[in-house]
């Protein structure tokens, strides 16, 4: 378990090296991205720190996003790496307010990987792409020597179409906005963890892995949506902290209104993990104008993966970029970004 | 060396598995892509088997392409994985007749990788992107456990803008077209191989890794270009065979007009490798209307990385989709796709 919970860079021969924690979605990862990547590639798109870039090309406004998928195990209750690779990038495009259209896929396959499994993964990608209404139009396959990969890694990049009138992103968030969450949290991360650690519960914890493009469009159609973000690496807490940091506004949420399934709660307690920081693959927050919040909530609740939608908090007037949470017994604390990760390689 | 030259799938517990040869750019890779990926994702974009997809979104025509870079060693004479990751995708976009605009980058980093090396790679990407006039607008970082990766793998995807009037691709090739090559071949693959195998020559073999977007535009501006392709995995031979297969036209080339640097030739002889199949990263073929060939050749020769451009052959009237080559002593043979690869992990 030491490796899984490592939280600081390990010096090797006097050099700073990358640790698992650098990929965990916490502060170390943000520092690495800021120092190595944003510093070199500085441009307004990257600085917005959104789920994808909004770009203009010819006369069109597009969203462009990418993610690599390195999940272990490759097949898990509720999904597999193929479903995840399509869902994750489609969701990132949806969070930019776009209608996802086209995907690319790059496969890095370890020598010795069963072709049967590759076919299963491709079929899963096909089914998910069809459900999402996206086409996989270009791809690449590389094979690396045995012991230099881990079964298969998949990168997908995607392009979505943004209607001209749409403005969605952290910079659009306003004081007074409502924060709406579309259901219970923590299932994806704990499904992976339970399978990896061989934990047995009364019923299997299933990943919440699901497409968010339709419900996102439904929310946008029902009122003035300012920002959306899916709660992947780093979970609900990290996502809200990232948005609060970007827009320099404080946010407050109520723990009472955040649902955690009983078994997920049990697994989290057993492993000493806070569900607020656990990755989800079918959960997102909508930050919307207060006046429209009830209408948007209604639209989300009428959608299959939004039945459990609730308003969990609000954006405040103060401008420190902090997120606070009130516990069920009434104590309020500041949510901070974790240094490293709780769970690596879950998405 | 056995591993490097493996050419058939190794059965493991009765299952067919992926071998290094599946990633080598030869017939096995084509079969795998056809069977697993094209079969599942079937759409006109993939069936065209071009370097990237041509898509329409809003009112714009775009090129969309992706590649993962798994080169070993990461730093080599003439370049590094960062330069390669930008150059390769920019070149693929350029081969579609587009002006490359935006790139995404996905990093899969092995735990323990020196941050200093990561910075060197990011700097190299920055410099190359600037030279190519593209912006790196969105990215992703994943860290995998030590022993489950190989230093760093990089995926880039790119978007280019296509002028409405432009029609470039294998299906546009016509009988009588001239085949123009922009210089000597085999340097990238042999630079990697020489470094990997510790071969010492009088001077170091340098990769030809170079951006092709400007010279491609120059060629297109000088006359009627029907198809372009950069000669990466599988080299000149495989690229021509792919195009001939797609357009179902025969092609003929003259070995006399194909330049191979003396040291590259020596390294190839030593290792029993045919330079026609060795990967390049700054070489491409232009297939163009016969009547415009001289003008296009002139435009290419006046460009820095096209000084050595030559017309190396022609497209024939016959429709078998075969490529033939006449040797310096006058013997003609059919060029066939290799089964596996000569050199894995060179791009």
Polypeptide structure, described:
- 2 copies of one chain form a homodimer.
- Chain A has 347 residues and is α+β, with helices and mostly antiparallel strands.
- Chain A folds into 2 domains: 115 residues, 2-Layer Sandwich (60s Ribosomal Protein L30, Chain: A), CATH 3.30.1330; 166 residues, Alpha-Beta Complex (Phosphoribosyl-aminoimidazole Synthetase, Chain A, domain 2).
- In chain A, the strands form 3 sheets. A 7-stranded mixed beta sheet of chain A has the order 9-11-8-12-10-13-14, sandwiched between helices. In chain A, strands 1-2-7-5-6 form a 5-stranded mixed beta sheet, covered by helices on one side. A two-stranded antiparallel ribbon of chain A has the order 3-4.
- Chain A is globular and about 55 Å long.
- The first copy, chain A, starts with 26 loop residues before the first helix and ends in a 12-residue tail after the last strand.
- The N terminus of chain A is likely disordered.
